[in-house]
């Protein structure tokens, strides 16, 4: 996915990503300056005892049947990937031939960083036939501190709480 994004390969993004993510990445590609080239590389997986053989750990695996549709459903897996990645931008010289063209031609910046990503993979099933796995997007892990958030509170839903806010000021 990242290689296709860096190369501006929208056809590959449409093949390996679900439509929402593919459309988001395609719109980001279209907003890039024409003289800018993006590079990306997976340098290595950062292995822990849990990920020694594959470099990937399955965090969640859920499946659901679509109601009133026999043999249809969805399965989503969240994988945790810890890796060292490098990304960069290279600005090509403009064709106008200005004095700054030569200076800009060598303008490149590459950074390397360790990343922990939670990637959601999705497989759909229609009429008992499995579609290929596709990347649905990224997930954010929930910490113990997040459990104090109103999103996890017992009782009324967030929508009901927001609708009740105006009434709280009246006595």
Automatic annotation (TrEMBL):
Coiled coil: none annotated. It is found in: Mitochondrion. Residues 88-108 are annotated as: Disordered. Its main location: mitochondrion. The keyword Repeat does not apply. InterPro entries: mtLSU_mL45. GO terms for cellular component: mitochondrion. Residues 92-108 have a biased composition (Polar residues). Keywords: Mitochondrion, Transit peptide. This is Tim44-like domain-containing protein.
């Amino acid at each position: 996915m990242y290689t296709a994004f860096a190369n501006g390969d929208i056809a590959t993004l449409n093949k390996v990503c679900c439509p929402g993510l593919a459309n988001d990445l395609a719109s980001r590609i279209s907003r890039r300056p024409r003289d800018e080239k993006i590079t990306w590389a997976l340098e290595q997986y950062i292995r822990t005892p849990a990920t020694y053989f594959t470099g990937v750990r399955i965090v969640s695996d859920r499946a659901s049947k679509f109601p009133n549709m026999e043999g249809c459903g969805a399965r989503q897996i969240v994988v945790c990937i810890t890796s060292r990645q490098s990304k960069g931008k290279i600005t090509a010289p403009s064709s106008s031939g200005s004095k700054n063209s030569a200076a800009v031609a060598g303008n490149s910046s590459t950074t390397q960083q360790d990343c922990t990503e939670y990637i959601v993979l999705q497989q759909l099933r229609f009429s008992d036939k499995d579609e290929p796995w596709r990347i649905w997007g990224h997930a954010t892990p929930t910490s113990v501190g997040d459990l104090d958030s109103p999103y996890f509170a017992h009782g009324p839903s967030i929508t009901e709480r927001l609708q009740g806010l105006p009434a709280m000021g009246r006595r």
